[in-house]
Amino acid sequence: MIKITMPDGSKRDYACGTTGMEIAQSISKSLAKISLAIKIDGAVSDLSLSIDKDVSIEIITRKDAEALELIRHSAAHVMAQAVQSLFPNTQVTIGPSIENGFYYDFARKEPFSTADIEKIEREMRKIIERGNKFEREIWTRVDAITYFKDKGEIYKAELIEGLPEGEDVTVYKQGDWLDLCKGPHVPSTRHIGGGFKLLKVAGAYWRGDAKNAMLTRIYGTAWRDEKELKAYLFQLEEAEKRDHRKLGSEMDLYHFQSEAQGSVFWHPKGFVIYNQLEGYIRRRLNSSGYKEIKTPQLIDNKLWEASGHWGKYRENMFVVPDEIPNTDDDAPVVSDKAFDKLMALKPMNCPAHVQVFNQGIKSYRDLPLRLAEFGCCHRNEPHGALHGLMRVRQMTQDDAHIFCREDQITSESVAFCDLVKTVYSDLGFNDVKIVLALRPEMRAGSDEVWDKAEGGLRQALIEAGLEFTEAENEGAFYGPKIEYHIRDAIGRSWQCGTLQLDFVLPERLDASYIGADGAKHRPVMLHRAVLGTLERFIGVMIESYAGKLPLWLAPTQVVVATITSSADDYAREVHKALLDAGVRAELDIRNEKINYKVREHSLAKVPVLYVVGAREAEEQTVAIRRLGSKNQSVDPLDKAIAELTDAIKPPY
RNA sequence: GCUGCUGUAGCUCAGUGGUAGAGCGCGUCAUUGGUAAUGACGAGGUCGGGAGUUCAAUUCUCCCCAGCAGCACCA
Question: Given strand A2-5, what is the order of strands in its sheet?
Answer without folding.
Answer: A11-14, A2-5, A55-61, A35-40, A43-45
